[in-house]
């Protein structure tokens, strides 16, 4: 028999919640004020009154033991004629409240039922007390209930809640039965069984595992299969499949769909960003602006039951369809469906970002569960996590807000004071050099908090929410609030400086590993996998791993003779040398084009570099080039890749680390080779220098952490476009003498040891012709 425990508030809201979504601004101090009001009113209680009274009651059925528990705000006159008091603070005009809210009344009735049963009271009074935050006045609603009526009410609430438990249990039982019957859907490829076993072991031991697995090793299935098999042992834990790219999320959905066709019965929901999911041009989550927010909670139970009955893999497209059908917000619907889902597919930020993470699973009040985190293309999370824990205050936003509230004295003064400090920081910058700051000046710190307090009142009282003035203060309020929250919780890896180029005050995180590690503790295990987690120790450290965690470097599974790697040491691409080498680079690219007729990518460290070589190339040769634009929308990217479907002999110029160097599959003759022009080191800037200094201070090689490994990661991603299946044949030419240096070679995985160094154009042509003769 399974045991479930639920609070009075949760059971009432689950069964009776109704009404609209309304995320309009509410004064932030009001939650704290509400708690203070409870304490203030309870202090007025006499000797015959009790506060914070704990009650509990269990109900047994053939299938479950359901325990309902909670704390009563007040039991007045408990010895003689008890009154169960439920206290609610409100910003509403008390005169307009003509009857208690049904949810508040239901909570009070449940408390009264639990209390009367425990103390054998035949009749009991219920009081809902509303306290006006602004007026400081109270209003009471009293009614008397018999214990018999309360018992009927309690039984009805429990019955309706148990029906939902039955539905959930039915889903869980069918899931567990299908998982029990689930077998690996293919014959194991080379090393695949070992990967799956190591993941089992890591999860069972509640450790993380970091897997560097080459293309073709079945990374998605390798991670999903053992995680799914272990779901029945995870209690209320979810399986989070995390990726930064929509293509990878689709691969996960397709893999689950394939497993479903083989008999797996599991519920999966994909969460898409609110801005993408929203039916409106700009999200505005309230019943006045959005028809999909109206009566959302009234429609929710029926919609959830229908969706979970109709489908198992709830993609963004499914959500759009059902949300339109029921006229409901698709984003909120995805979040509510996640409560019922076994697998949640979403972006990294819904787990790791301190300001975007799903509160229902990861805030301080959420219980620690046996969640499993599957982190796809995990190398991307290092820089993404730095971004999550870095924020800035834009000087122009301060000025815009100041102009918007010139007549609001407190608000305008706080903004003037903030701007004064930012102006001083800006003047302290020498030319374009950033100005480092040890800590916020106490006066600036105080001005920022004074702005929040003044803006809090302004936003809660402003009559027109659609004006530019309101939006300027609204957006700045959240920028400052987040900035101060992060500042107050900063680590030793945070650095404060003023950037004159962007005209802002920055709080930059050079290393987010301690924050990632803390979030991983909210679950059971993290399974990190990518084809470019080289070196593994570096990625384990920066992604929040521990010394006891598992590292798995999977050897190459394809015939290395199918992939020729040439190192062209005649080329130098360092920033100081590259200009004199543009002609040689263009000449060598042309030699490769002529020597091996196939589709090929040429990847460059930056768009500026690309344009310079393109200019030199087109001056010399008549070859047609396909060139990545600096900014491309989805349809333009699709059209670009479609060229590889229709022709042979395409030479495409693109940027390493961009949309075409990662996450695309051009198998067979669609892609025969890549030319990687330069080691793709990140551009020298304040942030990269802070990363370097941070790790130098820890007596590590800061250059490797800040530049070398991230740059070579882009190189590996570019190289990984060529061999996607065991029948693919192709080449990679690494153009830069630094690719022959030991420190750079050490960043390549062991299965890329078939590197041939070429020193002249003739050597380059000769090796390519040899490869053509061998493989045709």
Describe the 3D structure.
- There is one protein chain.
- The protein has 776 residues and is of the alpha/beta class.
- Helices cover 45% and strands 18% of the residues.
- The chain is built from 27 helices and 25 strands.
- It has an 8-stranded parallel β-sheet, sandwiched between helices. A 7-stranded parallel β-sheet has the order 21-22-20-23-24-19-25, sandwiched between helices.
- Helix 3 packs across helix 4 (147-181) and helix 21 runs parallel beside helix 27.
- The protein is globular.
Strand residue content: 15-25%
Q: Order the strands across the largest sheet as they lie in space.
A: 10-9-11-8-12-17-7-18
**What does the main sheet amount to?**
8 strands, parallel
Q: Low-confidence segments, ≥5 residues, pLDDT <50?
A: none
- Structural Rg: 31 Å
Task: Measure the end-to-end span.
Answer: 67 Å
Provide mean pLDDT, rounded. Answer: 91
The assembly state of the depicted protein chains is single chain
The count of DSSP E runs of length 2 or more, i.e. the number of strands, is: 25
Structural class: alpha/beta
Give the overall shape, derived from the CA principal axes. Answer: globular
Count of runs of 4 or more consecutive helical residues: 27
Helix proportion: 40-55%
Key phrases:
27 helices; eight-stranded parallel beta sheet; 45% helix; 776 residues; alpha/beta; 25 strands; seven-stranded parallel beta sheet
Write the layout of secondary structure elements.
Layout: E1 2-7, H1 8-16, H2 29-43, E2 50-60, E3 64-76, E4 83-90, H3 102-119, E5 123-132, E6 138-146, H4 147-181, H5 192-204, E7 209-212, H6 219-229, E8 239-242, H7 246-261, E9 268-270, H8 274-277, H9 296-310, E10 313-314, H10 316-326, H11 330-338, E11 343-346, H12 349-352, H13 359-362, E12 372-376, H14 381-388, E13 391-394, H15 395-404, H16 409-428, E14 435-437, H17 442-461, H18 468-488, E15 494-499, E16 504-509, H19 513-520, E17 525-530, H20 536-542, E18 550-553, E19 563-568, H21 578-595, E20 600-604, H22 607-620, E21 625-627, H23 634-646, E22 651-655, E23 673-677, H24 686-697, H25 702-719, E24 730-735, H26 742-745, E25 755-758, H27 761-775
Parallel strand pairs: 1-3, 4-5, 7-17, 7-18, 8-11, 8-12, 9-10, 9-11, 12-17, 19-24, 19-25, 20-22, 20-23, 21-22, 23-24
Antiparallel strand pairs: 2-3, 3-4, 5-6, 13-16, 14-15, 15-16
């Amino acid at each position: 028999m399974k045991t479930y425990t639920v609070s009075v508030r949760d059971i009432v809201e689950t069964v009776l919640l109704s009404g609209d979504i309304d995320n309009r601004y509410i004064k932030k101090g009001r939650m704290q004020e509400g708690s203070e009001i409870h304490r203030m009113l309870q202090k007025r209680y006499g000797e015959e009154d009790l506060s914070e009274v704990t009650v509990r009651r269990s109900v047994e059925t053939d299938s479950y033991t359901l325990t309902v528990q909670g704390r009563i705000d007040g039991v007045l006159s408990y010895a003689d004629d008890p009154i169960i008091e439920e206290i609610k603070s409100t910003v509403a005009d008390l005169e307009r409240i003509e009857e208690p809210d049904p949810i508040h009344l239901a909570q009070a009735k449940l408390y009264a039922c639990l209390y009367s049963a425990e103390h054998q009271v035949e009749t009991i009074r219920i009081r809902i007390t509303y306290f006006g935050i602004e007026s400081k006045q109270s209003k009471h609603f009293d009614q008397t209930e018999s214990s018999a009526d309360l018992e009927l009410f309690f039984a009805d609430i429990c019955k309706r809640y148990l029906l939902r438990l039955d539905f959930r249990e039915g889903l869980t039982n069918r899931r567990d039965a299908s998982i029990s019957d689930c077998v690996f859907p293919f014959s194991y490829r080379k090393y695949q069984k070992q990967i799956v076993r190591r993941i089992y072991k890591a999860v069972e031991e509640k450790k993380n595992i970091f897997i560097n697995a080459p293309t073709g090793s079945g990374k998605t299935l390798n991670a999903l299969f053992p995680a799914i098999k272990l779901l029945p042992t995870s209690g209320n834990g979810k399986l989070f499949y995390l990726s930064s790219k929509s293509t990878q999320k689709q691969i996960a959905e397709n893999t689950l769909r394939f497993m479903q066709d083989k008999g797996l019965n599991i519920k999966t929901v994909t969460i898409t960003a609110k801005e993408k999911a929203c039916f409106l041009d700009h999200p505005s989550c309230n019943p006045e602006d959005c028809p999909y927010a109206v009566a959302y909670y009234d429609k929710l139970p029926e919609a959830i039951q229908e969706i979970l009955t109709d489908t198992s893999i709830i993609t963004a497209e499914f959500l759009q369809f059902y949300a339109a059908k029921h006229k409901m917000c698709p984003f909120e619907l995805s979040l509510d469906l996640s409560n019922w889902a076994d697998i949640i597919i979403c972006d990294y930020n819904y787990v790791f970002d301190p300001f975007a993470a799903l509160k229902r699973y990861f805030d301080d009040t959420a219980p620690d569960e046996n969640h499993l985190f599957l982190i796809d293309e995990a190398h991307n999370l290092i820089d993404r996590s730095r971004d999550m824990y870095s924020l800035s205050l834009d000087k122009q936003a301060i000025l815009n807000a100041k102009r918007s509230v010139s007549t609001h004295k407190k608000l305008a003064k706080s903004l003037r004071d903030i701007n004064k400090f930012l102006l001083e920081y800006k003047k302290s910058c020498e030319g374009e050099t950033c100005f480092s700051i040890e800590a916020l000046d106490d006066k600036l710190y105080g001005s920022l908090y004074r702005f929040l307090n003044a803006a809090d009142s302004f936003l809660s009282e402003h009559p027109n929410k659609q004006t530019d003035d309101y939006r300027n203060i609204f957006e700045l309020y959240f920028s400052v609030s987040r900035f101060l929250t992060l500042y107050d919780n900063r680590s030793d890896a945070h650095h404060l400086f003023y950037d004159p180029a962007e005209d802002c005050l920055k709080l930059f995180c050079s290393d987010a590993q301690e924050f990632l590690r803390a979030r991983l503790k909210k679950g059971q295990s993290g399974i990190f996998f990518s084809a470019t987690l080289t070196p593994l120790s570096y990625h384990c450290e920066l992604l929040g791993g521990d010394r006891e965690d598992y590292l798995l470097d999977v050897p190459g599974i394809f015939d290395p003779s199918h992939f020729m790697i040439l190192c062209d040491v005649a080329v130098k691409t360092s920033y100081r040398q590259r200009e004199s080498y543009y002609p040689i680079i263009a000449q060598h690219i042309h030699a490769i084009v002529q020597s091996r007729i196939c589709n090929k990518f040429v990847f460059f460290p930056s768009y500026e570099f690309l344009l310079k070589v393109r200019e030199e190339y087109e001056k010399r040769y008549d070859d047609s080039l396909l060139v990545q634009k600096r900014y491309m929308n989805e349809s333009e990217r699709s059209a670009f890749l479609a060229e590889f479907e229709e022709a042979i002999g395409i030479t495409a110029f693109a940027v390493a680390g961009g949309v075409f160097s990662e996450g695309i599959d051009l198998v067979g003759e669609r892609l025969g080779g890549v030319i990687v022009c330069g080691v793709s080191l990140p551009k020298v800037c304040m942030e990269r220098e802070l990363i370097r200094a941070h790790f130098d201070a820890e007596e590590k090689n800061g250059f490797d952490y800040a530049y070398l490994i991230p740059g070579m990661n882009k190189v590996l991603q570019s190289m990984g476009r060529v061999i996607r299946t065991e029948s693919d044949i192709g080449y990679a030419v690494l153009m830069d003498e630094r690719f022959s240096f030991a420190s750079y070679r050490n960043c390549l995985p062991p299965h890329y040891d078939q590197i041939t160094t070429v020193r002249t154009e003739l050597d380059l042509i000769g090796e390519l012709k040899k490869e053509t003769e061998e493989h045709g």
